[in-house]
Amino acid sequence: MTVNIFSGADKAIKEMNRQNLKAFNSLKLAKWDELNVIRQVDTVYADSIRRAERKYYELAVEAYIVALYEAKVERNKAHRMADEAIDMIWVMEWLEDVDPVTMYAFYPEAERKKARLIEALTAAHNRNAEIDKALRYWTKQVAQYADNSVHYARLQAFKDAGVKKVMWITQRDEKVCEECGPLDGKIFDIDHVPDVPHWNCRCYLKPILE
């Protein structure tokens, strides 16, 4: 089995899941009038988005630096490059783009999910079930973009380090899917790397050094 470069993302996802579970469960105790519902749900999503942005930034910085080490960039230089390349603006820019895996952009989809929950809570007889369903959908979105932050940061690091080609590596275990299996070991030009093929993909790129 290969190394899991997503171990940091796994920890971040678990932490965000705990915080989001607590926040969404707090909605079950809210006073049920329309204005209060709107205010409470808006706060839950706004706080969760801010937490996610911060986690994605932290994950991206770590992944970027590790990728530079793999590309044989000296430690001090790697940290300087990370300071220059990865900031909150960098994170927010790719969150605003439509992702090839989810087929939506992070922020507009968050607004759509929020609006759907508000609508459901003002109309539903079983509000707790609607809250639980909204949490499941939101948890899936937040987790996928945590993985994305690692993938995109590594790709950015390789480009900044002058890497020209990368090798696609799967986890090489029994969970490797039919989409990813044929990609294992294939070499791609750094500017023509295939999109991540599906949700929860744990394949990663290895730099090919001259």
Would you mind describing this structure in some detail?
The chain is mainly α. The protein has one domain (7-162). It is 62% helix and 6% strand. It is built from 6 helices and 3 strands, in the order ααααααβββ. The protein has helices spanning 7-27, 34-70, 75-85, 88-96, 106-123, 127-160, and strands spanning 165-169, 187-189, 204-208. Strands 2-1-3 form a 3-stranded antiparallel beta sheet, with helices on one face. The longest helix is centred in the first third of the chain and has 37 residues, at 34-70. It is elongated, with a radius of gyration of 19 Å. It starts with 6 loop residues before the first helix and ends with a strand. The mean pLDDT is 94.
Question: What attributes does this structure have?
Answer:
mainly alpha; three-stranded antiparallel beta sheet; 210 residues
Q: What's the arrangement of secondary structure elements?
A:
Layout: H1 7-27, H2 34-70, H3 75-85, H4 88-96, H5 106-123, H6 127-160, E1 165-169, E2 187-189, E3 204-208
Antiparallel strand pairs: 1-2, 1-3
